[in-house]
Write a structure and sequence with these properties.
- By secondary structure, the chain is an all-alpha fold.
- Helices cover 74% and strands 0% of the residues.
- α1 (14-35) packs antiparallel against α2 (39-65), α1 (14-35) runs antiparallel to α4 (101-134) and α3 runs antiparallel to α4.
Length: 141
C-alpha cells in the first residue's frame, strides 16, 4: 500500500511540501519492503531513517510556527499532534518484543497512510496559509 502525492497535499510553503514528499518516499519504502516480505529490514533500516527525518521535519515546522502571530491555540494543537504522532511511532517500535515484525510494519504503514495525508491537508495546510498570510518571504512553489 503505497501513498501517492497529489496537489491537494500542498501547503503552499515549498520547504514544507518538499519535506512532506520525502516523508511519503520513506513511507513508500516501508510499504514496498512490507509487500515483498522484508519487514525486519523495514524496521531495522527504514524506520530509523523515518524517525530521524520526522524529528527534523517537526522541528522545522515548529520553528516556522514560532514565527506566527496567533491569537488562538493553533500552535499548541499542532505541537500536540506532533507529540501524539511521535509517541505512537515509539509505541509501535517498542511493540517488537510482543509482536512479529510483519504485524508491526503493517500497523505502521496503515497508521502513516492514514495520519500523514490527514495532517497535511488540515493542520499543515492551515500552517501554510498562516505563514503565507503573515510573511511575504513564503511563496507558493
Amino acid at each position: 500500500m503505497t501513498i501517492q502525492w497529489n496537489k491537494e497535499l500542498d501547503t503552499g510553503v515549498r520547504s514544507i511540501d518538499l519535506q512532506h514528499r520525502e516523508l511519503f518516499a520513506l513511507v513508500n519504502e516501508l510499504a514496498t519492503l512490507h509487500a515483498t516480505g522484508y519487514d525486519t529490514e523495514a524496521l531495522n533500516e527504514v524506520l530509523p531513517q523515518l524517525n530521524t527525518f520526522v524529528r527534523f521535519h517537526f522541528s522545522e515546522e515548529e520553528t516556522l510556527m514560532h514565527m506566527l502571530v496567533a491569537e488562538d491555540d493553533f500552535e499548541q494543537q499542532h505541537l500536540a499532534q506532533h507529540r501524539e504522532f511521535t509517541a505512537h511511532i515509539e509505541w509501535l517500535q517498542k511493540d517488537r518484543n510482543r509482536q512479529n515484525d510483519t504485524a508491526i510494519v503493517e500497523a505502521l504503514v496503515h497508521y502513516l497512510h492514514d495520519w500523514l495525508p490527514e495532517h497535511f491537508t488540515t493542520t499543515d495546510r492551515e500552517l501554510g496559509q498562516r505563514l503565507l498570510n503573515q510573511h511575504s518571504a513564503f511563496s507558493a512553489h
